[in-house]
Protein backbone atom coordinates (compact mmCIF):
# COMPACT_ATOMS: atom_id res chain seq x y z
CA UNK A 1 0.00 0.00 0.00
CA UNK A 2 1.07 3.56 -0.67
CA UNK A 3 0.53 6.69 1.41
CA UNK A 4 -1.99 9.47 1.10
CA UNK A 5 0.75 11.97 0.28
CA UNK A 6 1.63 9.86 -2.79
CA UNK A 7 -1.73 10.59 -4.42
CA UNK A 8 -2.91 13.83 -2.80
CA UNK A 9 -1.76 17.32 -1.94
CA UNK A 10 -2.37 18.03 1.74
CA UNK A 11 -2.64 21.65 2.87
CA UNK A 12 -2.77 22.12 6.64
CA UNK A 13 -4.56 25.27 7.73
CA UNK A 14 -2.90 28.21 9.44
CA UNK A 15 -4.95 30.79 11.30
CA UNK A 16 -4.64 34.43 10.23
CA UNK A 17 -4.03 37.21 12.74
CA UNK A 18 -7.05 37.97 14.84
CA UNK A 19 -7.26 41.62 13.86
CA UNK A 20 -7.63 40.55 10.21
CA UNK A 21 -10.77 38.52 10.97
CA UNK A 22 -14.35 39.67 11.30
CA UNK A 23 -17.92 38.45 11.23
CA UNK A 24 -18.66 40.72 8.27
CA UNK A 25 -18.06 39.57 4.68
CA UNK A 26 -14.71 41.22 3.93
CA UNK A 27 -11.95 39.27 2.23
CA UNK A 28 -12.08 35.47 2.01
CA UNK A 29 -14.47 33.32 4.04
CA UNK A 30 -12.51 31.68 6.85
CA UNK A 31 -12.94 28.10 8.07
CA UNK A 32 -11.46 27.31 11.46
CA UNK A 33 -13.57 24.21 11.92
CA UNK A 34 -16.62 22.64 10.30
CA UNK A 35 -19.15 25.42 10.74
CA UNK A 36 -21.98 23.36 9.26
CA UNK A 37 -20.78 19.96 8.13
CA UNK A 38 -24.24 18.47 7.96
CA UNK A 39 -24.70 20.07 4.55
CA UNK A 40 -22.74 19.51 1.35
CA UNK A 41 -20.68 22.69 1.68
CA UNK A 42 -19.56 24.72 4.70
CA UNK A 43 -21.35 27.83 5.90
CA UNK A 44 -18.63 30.19 7.17
CA UNK A 45 -19.31 32.69 9.94
CA UNK A 46 -15.97 34.54 9.70
CA UNK A 47 -13.96 36.30 6.99
CA UNK A 48 -10.34 37.39 6.81
CA UNK A 49 -8.32 39.92 4.84
CA UNK A 50 -5.07 38.14 5.70
CA UNK A 51 -5.41 34.50 4.60
CA UNK A 52 -2.41 32.26 5.26
CA UNK A 53 -3.51 28.95 3.71
CA UNK A 54 -6.13 28.30 1.08
CA UNK A 55 -8.63 25.68 0.02
CA UNK A 56 -9.71 25.55 -3.62
CA UNK A 57 -13.04 24.57 -5.19
CA UNK A 58 -13.58 20.76 -5.04
CA UNK A 59 -11.04 20.33 -2.22
CA UNK A 60 -11.98 17.86 0.48
CA UNK A 61 -12.14 19.78 3.75
CA UNK A 62 -11.16 17.66 6.74
CA UNK A 63 -11.53 18.83 10.35
CA UNK A 64 -8.29 17.98 12.17
CA UNK A 65 -8.98 19.24 15.68
CA UNK A 66 -11.72 19.95 18.19
CA UNK A 67 -15.06 18.34 18.97
CA UNK A 68 -15.79 17.64 15.30
CA UNK A 69 -12.45 16.08 14.33
CA UNK A 70 -12.94 13.74 11.38
CA UNK A 71 -15.90 15.57 9.83
CA UNK A 72 -15.57 16.24 6.10
CA UNK A 73 -17.08 18.57 3.54
CA UNK A 74 -16.45 19.94 0.06
CA UNK A 75 -15.10 23.37 -0.82
CA UNK A 76 -17.41 25.10 -3.27
CA UNK A 77 -15.15 28.16 -3.63
CA UNK A 78 -11.82 29.54 -2.38
CA UNK A 79 -11.57 29.58 1.41
CA UNK A 80 -8.99 30.68 3.93
CA UNK A 81 -8.42 27.72 6.25
CA UNK A 82 -7.36 27.98 9.87
CA UNK A 83 -5.62 25.46 12.12
CA UNK A 84 -8.72 23.30 12.45
CA UNK A 85 -8.93 22.38 8.77
CA UNK A 86 -6.86 20.47 6.21
CA UNK A 87 -7.59 20.76 2.49
CA UNK A 88 -7.00 17.57 0.46
CA UNK A 89 -6.88 17.38 -3.33
CA UNK A 90 -6.11 14.34 -5.49
CA UNK A 91 -3.17 14.95 -7.79
CA UNK A 92 -5.19 13.47 -10.66
CA UNK A 93 -7.96 16.07 -10.43
CA UNK A 94 -11.51 16.57 -9.14
CA UNK A 95 -12.90 13.36 -10.67
CA UNK A 96 -10.92 11.36 -8.08
CA UNK A 97 -12.08 13.35 -5.06
CA UNK A 98 -14.94 11.01 -4.00
CA UNK A 99 -12.44 8.13 -4.00
CA UNK A 100 -10.09 10.21 -1.84
CA UNK A 101 -12.87 10.84 0.65
CA UNK A 102 -13.68 7.12 0.65
CA UNK A 103 -10.06 6.28 1.49
CA UNK A 104 -10.20 8.49 4.57
CA UNK A 105 -13.65 7.28 5.65
CA UNK A 106 -12.49 3.68 5.32
CA UNK A 107 -9.76 4.25 7.93
CA UNK A 108 -11.29 7.10 9.90
CA UNK A 109 -11.88 5.18 13.13
CA UNK A 110 -8.24 4.05 13.29
CA UNK A 111 -7.07 7.56 12.41
CA UNK A 112 -9.07 9.08 15.27
CA UNK A 113 -7.89 6.45 17.75
CA UNK A 114 -4.27 7.28 16.87
CA UNK A 115 -4.87 11.04 17.10
CA UNK A 116 -3.45 12.98 20.04
CA UNK A 117 -5.24 15.32 22.41
CA UNK A 118 -6.41 15.09 26.02
CA UNK A 119 -9.92 16.42 25.38
CA UNK A 120 -10.52 16.06 21.64
CA UNK A 121 -8.49 14.17 19.04
CA UNK A 122 -6.08 16.21 16.93
CA UNK A 123 -4.98 14.71 13.63
CA UNK A 124 -1.47 15.78 12.63
CA UNK A 125 0.02 16.48 9.23
CA UNK A 126 2.23 13.40 9.55
CA UNK A 127 -0.78 11.19 10.30
CA UNK A 128 -2.54 12.37 7.16
CA UNK A 129 0.59 12.06 5.03
CA UNK A 130 1.21 8.50 6.22
CA UNK A 131 -2.39 7.29 5.92
CA UNK A 132 -2.37 4.07 3.92
CA UNK A 133 -3.95 4.10 0.48
CA UNK A 134 -5.44 0.95 -1.14
CA UNK A 135 -3.59 -0.28 -4.21
CA UNK A 136 -6.23 0.67 -6.74
CA UNK A 137 -5.38 1.27 -10.37
CA UNK A 138 -6.32 4.71 -11.68
CA UNK A 139 -9.31 3.31 -13.55
CA UNK A 140 -10.50 1.65 -10.31
CA UNK A 141 -10.13 4.93 -8.46
CA UNK A 142 -12.25 6.65 -11.11
CA UNK A 143 -14.91 3.93 -11.03
CA UNK A 144 -15.13 3.93 -7.24
CA UNK A 145 -15.21 7.73 -7.29
CA UNK A 146 -18.09 7.60 -9.78
CA UNK A 147 -20.06 5.20 -7.58
CA UNK A 148 -19.56 7.13 -4.34
CA UNK A 149 -20.00 10.44 -6.16
CA UNK A 150 -23.33 9.35 -7.64
CA UNK A 151 -24.66 8.47 -4.21
CA UNK A 152 -23.34 11.72 -2.73
CA UNK A 153 -24.89 13.72 -5.57
CA UNK A 154 -28.29 12.11 -5.07
CA UNK A 155 -28.10 12.77 -1.34
CA UNK A 156 -27.27 16.41 -2.06
CA UNK A 157 -30.15 16.74 -4.54
CA UNK A 158 -32.51 15.39 -1.89
CA UNK A 159 -31.07 17.75 0.71
CA UNK A 160 -31.69 20.73 -1.57
CA UNK A 161 -35.20 19.48 -2.35
CA UNK A 162 -35.98 19.22 1.35
CA UNK A 163 -34.63 22.72 1.96
CA UNK A 164 -36.78 24.11 -0.86
CA UNK A 165 -39.92 22.39 0.45
CA UNK A 166 -39.25 23.70 3.94
CA UNK A 167 -38.77 27.21 2.57
CA UNK A 168 -42.03 27.01 0.60
CA UNK A 169 -43.98 26.01 3.71
CA UNK A 170 -42.37 28.76 5.78
CA UNK A 171 -43.09 31.35 3.07
CA UNK A 172 -46.77 30.39 3.06
CA UNK A 173 -46.91 30.62 6.85
CA UNK A 174 -45.30 34.06 6.76
CA UNK A 175 -47.77 35.28 4.12
CA UNK A 176 -50.87 34.11 5.97
CA UNK A 177 -49.96 34.31 9.66
CA UNK A 178 -47.26 36.98 9.94
CA UNK A 179 -47.68 39.48 7.09
CA UNK A 180 -51.43 38.79 6.78
CA UNK A 181 -51.25 39.26 3.00
CA UNK A 182 -54.75 37.88 2.25
CA UNK A 183 -56.31 40.24 4.82
CA UNK A 184 -54.46 43.28 3.52
CA UNK A 185 -55.44 42.39 -0.05
CA UNK A 186 -59.11 42.01 0.87
CA UNK A 187 -59.07 45.26 2.84
CA UNK A 188 -57.65 47.02 -0.24
CA UNK A 189 -60.29 45.50 -2.49
CA UNK A 190 -57.89 43.43 -4.56
CA UNK A 191 -57.46 39.71 -5.09
CA UNK A 192 -54.98 37.89 -2.87
CA UNK A 193 -51.97 36.63 -4.80
CA UNK A 194 -51.70 32.89 -5.46
CA UNK A 195 -55.04 32.15 -3.81
CA UNK A 196 -58.35 30.92 -5.20
CA UNK A 197 -61.55 32.83 -4.52
CA UNK A 198 -62.96 30.23 -2.13
CA UNK A 199 -59.90 30.39 0.11
CA UNK A 200 -59.75 34.21 -0.05
CA UNK A 201 -63.36 34.36 1.09
CA UNK A 202 -62.38 32.73 4.39
CA UNK A 203 -60.21 35.66 5.42
CA UNK A 204 -61.59 38.82 7.05
CA UNK A 205 -61.08 42.28 5.54
CA UNK A 206 -60.12 44.12 8.71
CA UNK A 207 -58.04 43.97 11.87
CA UNK A 208 -59.00 44.17 15.52
CA UNK A 209 -57.53 46.47 18.15
CA UNK A 210 -54.97 43.79 18.99
CA UNK A 211 -53.52 44.05 15.48
CA UNK A 212 -54.74 40.60 14.52
CA UNK A 213 -57.23 39.84 11.74
CA UNK A 214 -60.80 39.96 13.03
CA UNK A 215 -61.70 36.64 14.65
CA UNK A 216 -58.08 35.54 15.14
CA UNK A 217 -56.36 34.93 18.48
CA UNK A 218 -52.94 34.20 19.93
CA UNK A 219 -52.07 31.19 22.07
CA UNK A 220 -48.85 29.91 23.67
CA UNK A 221 -46.97 27.58 21.37
CA UNK A 222 -46.64 25.09 24.19
CA UNK A 223 -50.43 24.62 24.13
CA UNK A 224 -50.45 23.52 20.48
CA UNK A 225 -48.92 20.09 21.15
CA UNK A 226 -47.63 17.75 23.83
CA UNK A 227 -43.95 18.36 24.66
CA UNK A 228 -42.17 15.31 26.10
CA UNK A 229 -38.62 15.88 27.29
CA UNK A 230 -36.25 12.95 26.79
CA UNK A 231 -35.10 10.71 29.60
CA UNK A 232 -31.86 11.12 31.55
CA UNK A 233 -30.00 8.08 30.25
CA UNK A 234 -26.78 7.45 32.15
CA UNK A 235 -23.67 5.36 31.70
CA UNK A 236 -25.15 2.47 33.66
CA UNK A 237 -27.98 2.21 31.11
CA UNK A 238 -25.74 1.79 28.06
CA UNK A 239 -25.24 -1.65 26.53
CA UNK A 240 -25.18 -3.10 23.04
CA UNK A 241 -27.42 -6.09 23.60
CA UNK A 242 -29.47 -7.54 20.72
CA UNK A 243 -32.59 -5.69 21.89
CA UNK A 244 -30.81 -2.37 22.49
CA UNK A 245 -31.92 0.76 20.64
CA UNK A 246 -29.87 3.91 19.97
CA UNK A 247 -30.06 6.77 22.45
CA UNK A 248 -30.77 9.96 20.54
CA UNK A 249 -28.85 13.02 21.66
CA UNK A 250 -28.27 16.22 19.72
CA UNK A 251 -25.32 14.60 17.93
CA UNK A 252 -27.67 11.95 16.50
CA UNK A 253 -30.12 14.61 15.32
CA UNK A 254 -27.32 16.12 13.25
CA UNK A 255 -25.36 13.08 12.06
CA UNK A 256 -27.66 10.09 12.58
CA UNK A 257 -26.55 6.93 14.34
CA UNK A 258 -22.76 6.66 14.20
CA UNK A 259 -20.00 4.67 15.84
CA UNK A 260 -20.17 7.11 18.78
CA UNK A 261 -23.87 6.53 19.43
CA UNK A 262 -24.78 4.89 22.72
CA UNK A 263 -27.33 2.06 22.86
CA UNK A 264 -29.60 0.87 25.63
CA UNK A 265 -32.19 -1.80 26.33
CA UNK A 266 -33.36 0.06 29.43
CA UNK A 267 -36.97 1.20 29.13
CA UNK A 268 -37.44 4.36 31.23
CA UNK A 269 -40.94 4.85 29.87
CA UNK A 270 -42.69 4.23 26.56
CA UNK A 271 -43.20 7.97 26.12
CA UNK A 272 -39.45 8.26 25.49
CA UNK A 273 -39.52 5.88 22.52
CA UNK A 274 -39.39 7.64 19.16
CA UNK A 275 -39.81 6.32 15.63
CA UNK A 276 -39.48 7.39 12.03
CA UNK A 277 -41.37 10.61 11.33
CA UNK A 278 -41.42 11.93 14.90
CA UNK A 279 -40.99 15.70 15.32
CA UNK A 280 -38.18 16.60 17.70
CA UNK A 281 -37.05 19.94 19.12
CA UNK A 282 -33.58 20.29 20.62
CA UNK A 283 -33.77 22.94 23.31
CA UNK A 284 -30.23 23.05 24.67
CA UNK A 285 -26.80 23.71 23.19
CA UNK A 286 -25.14 26.18 20.85
CA UNK A 287 -27.90 28.64 19.81
CA UNK A 288 -26.64 28.76 16.23
CA UNK A 289 -26.13 25.04 15.60
CA UNK A 290 -28.10 23.02 18.16
CA UNK A 291 -31.41 24.80 18.81
CA UNK A 292 -33.58 23.43 16.01
CA UNK A 293 -36.49 21.25 14.91
CA UNK A 294 -35.92 17.88 13.28
CA UNK A 295 -37.84 15.01 11.76
CA UNK A 296 -36.39 11.70 12.96
CA UNK A 297 -35.70 9.68 9.82
CA UNK A 298 -34.43 6.43 11.32
CA UNK A 299 -36.14 3.56 13.09
CA UNK A 300 -37.11 3.18 16.75
CA UNK A 301 -34.84 4.77 19.33
CA UNK A 302 -34.86 6.19 22.85
CA UNK A 303 -34.95 9.96 23.33
CA UNK A 304 -32.37 11.52 25.62
CA UNK A 305 -32.89 14.66 27.68
CA UNK A 306 -32.37 18.14 26.16
CA UNK A 307 -34.71 17.17 23.31
CA UNK A 308 -38.50 17.44 23.22
CA UNK A 309 -40.66 15.03 21.30
CA UNK A 310 -43.36 17.36 19.93
CA UNK A 311 -46.55 15.32 19.54
CA UNK A 312 -49.83 16.60 18.07
CA UNK A 313 -52.59 17.01 20.66
CA UNK A 314 -55.43 17.63 18.20
CA UNK A 315 -54.93 21.37 17.75
CA UNK A 316 -52.45 21.30 14.86
CA UNK A 317 -51.04 18.75 12.46
CA UNK A 318 -47.42 17.68 12.61
CA UNK A 319 -46.84 19.52 9.33
CA UNK A 320 -48.10 22.80 10.81
CA UNK A 321 -46.10 22.34 14.03
CA UNK A 322 -42.91 21.64 12.07
CA UNK A 323 -43.47 24.66 9.81
CA UNK A 324 -44.11 26.99 12.73
CA UNK A 325 -41.10 25.78 14.70
CA UNK A 326 -38.86 26.19 11.68
CA UNK A 327 -40.24 29.66 10.94
CA UNK A 328 -39.59 30.94 14.45
CA UNK A 329 -36.25 29.19 14.89
CA UNK A 330 -34.24 32.47 14.71
CA UNK A 331 -36.32 33.79 17.61
CA UNK A 332 -35.85 30.59 19.61
CA UNK A 333 -32.11 30.81 18.97
CA UNK A 334 -32.12 34.39 20.26
CA UNK A 335 -33.95 33.34 23.43
CA UNK A 336 -31.31 30.65 23.98
CA UNK A 337 -28.50 33.11 23.20
CA UNK A 338 -29.74 35.50 25.88
CA UNK A 339 -29.29 32.68 28.40
CA UNK A 340 -25.96 31.54 26.98
CA UNK A 341 -23.27 30.35 29.39
CA UNK A 342 -19.95 28.86 28.23
CA UNK A 343 -21.26 28.75 24.67
CA UNK A 344 -24.53 26.96 25.53
CA UNK A 345 -28.08 28.25 25.71
CA UNK A 346 -31.48 26.72 26.30
CA UNK A 347 -35.23 27.00 25.81
CA UNK A 348 -37.45 26.18 28.79
CA UNK A 349 -41.11 25.27 29.09
CA UNK A 350 -41.59 28.72 30.58
CA UNK A 351 -40.19 30.23 27.38
CA UNK A 352 -42.53 28.11 25.28
CA UNK A 353 -45.48 29.16 27.41
CA UNK A 354 -44.58 32.83 26.89
CA UNK A 355 -44.10 32.42 23.13
CA UNK A 356 -47.38 33.08 21.34
CA UNK A 357 -48.44 32.08 17.83
CA UNK A 358 -51.36 33.31 15.74
CA UNK A 359 -54.41 31.07 15.60
CA UNK A 360 -56.85 31.47 12.71
CA UNK A 361 -60.43 30.15 12.66
CA UNK A 362 -60.66 26.39 12.07
CA UNK A 363 -61.64 26.68 8.39
CA UNK A 364 -58.48 28.68 7.61
CA UNK A 365 -56.27 26.38 9.66
CA UNK A 366 -57.69 23.42 7.76
CA UNK A 367 -56.93 24.97 4.36
CA UNK A 368 -53.42 25.95 5.50
CA UNK A 369 -52.70 22.42 6.67
CA UNK A 370 -54.05 20.97 3.44
CA UNK A 371 -51.64 23.26 1.55
CA UNK A 372 -48.52 22.30 3.49
CA UNK A 373 -49.22 18.60 4.12
CA UNK A 374 -48.03 17.50 0.62
CA UNK A 375 -44.87 19.59 1.03
CA UNK A 376 -44.23 18.08 4.45
CA UNK A 377 -44.88 14.53 3.25
CA UNK A 378 -42.44 14.95 0.37
CA UNK A 379 -39.94 16.57 2.73
CA UNK A 380 -40.06 13.49 4.95
CA UNK A 381 -39.72 11.13 1.99
CA UNK A 382 -36.52 12.86 0.90
CA UNK A 383 -35.13 12.42 4.41
CA UNK A 384 -36.03 8.75 4.42
CA UNK A 385 -34.50 8.17 1.00
CA UNK A 386 -31.32 9.88 2.09
CA UNK A 387 -31.07 7.52 5.02
CA UNK A 388 -31.41 4.57 2.63
CA UNK A 389 -28.74 6.04 0.36
CA UNK A 390 -26.41 6.75 3.26
CA UNK A 391 -26.82 3.19 4.54
CA UNK A 392 -26.12 1.82 1.06
CA UNK A 393 -23.02 3.99 0.80
CA UNK A 394 -21.77 2.89 4.23
CA UNK A 395 -22.27 -0.74 3.23
CA UNK A 396 -20.53 -0.41 -0.13
CA UNK A 397 -17.56 1.67 1.01
CA UNK A 398 -15.50 -0.97 2.87
CA UNK A 399 -16.23 -3.62 0.26
CA UNK A 400 -15.14 -1.33 -2.57
CA UNK A 401 -12.00 -0.23 -0.77
CA UNK A 402 -11.01 -3.77 0.13
CA UNK A 403 -11.65 -5.06 -3.40
CA UNK A 404 -14.37 -7.43 -2.23
CA UNK A 405 -16.83 -5.90 -4.71
CA UNK A 406 -16.26 -5.45 -8.42
CA UNK A 407 -16.90 -1.85 -9.35
CA UNK A 408 -18.71 -2.56 -12.64
CA UNK A 409 -21.38 -4.68 -10.99
CA UNK A 410 -21.78 -2.18 -8.17
CA UNK A 411 -22.49 0.69 -10.56
CA UNK A 412 -25.33 -1.33 -12.08
CA UNK A 413 -26.78 -1.96 -8.63
CA UNK A 414 -27.09 1.75 -7.79
CA UNK A 415 -28.57 2.88 -11.10
CA UNK A 416 -32.07 2.76 -9.63
CA UNK A 417 -31.17 5.72 -7.41
CA UNK A 418 -29.80 7.90 -10.19
Automatic annotation (TrEMBL):
Keyword Metal-binding tagged: no
Annotated ranges, domain Type I restriction modification DNA specificity: 3-166, 229-363
Name of this chain's protein: Restriction endonuclease subunit S
Protein keywords: DNA-binding, Endonuclease, Hydrolase, Nuclease, Restriction system
The keyword Aminoacyl-tRNA synthetase is assigned to this record: no
SUPFAM superfamilies per record: DNA methylase specificity domain (SSF116734)
GO molecular function: endonuclease activity
Amino acid sequence: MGQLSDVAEIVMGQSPKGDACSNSPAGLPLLNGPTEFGSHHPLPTQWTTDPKRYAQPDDLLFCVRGSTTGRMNWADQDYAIGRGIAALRHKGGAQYQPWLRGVIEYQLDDLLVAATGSTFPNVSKDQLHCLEVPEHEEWEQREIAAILGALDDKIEVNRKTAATLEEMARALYRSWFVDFDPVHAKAAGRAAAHMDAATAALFPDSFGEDGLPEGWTEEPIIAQSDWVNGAAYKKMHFAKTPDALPVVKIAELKAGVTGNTKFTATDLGEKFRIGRGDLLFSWSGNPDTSIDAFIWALKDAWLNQHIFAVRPNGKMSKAALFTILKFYMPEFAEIARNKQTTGLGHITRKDLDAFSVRIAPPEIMEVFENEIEPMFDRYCLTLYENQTLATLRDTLLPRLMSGELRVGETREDIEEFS
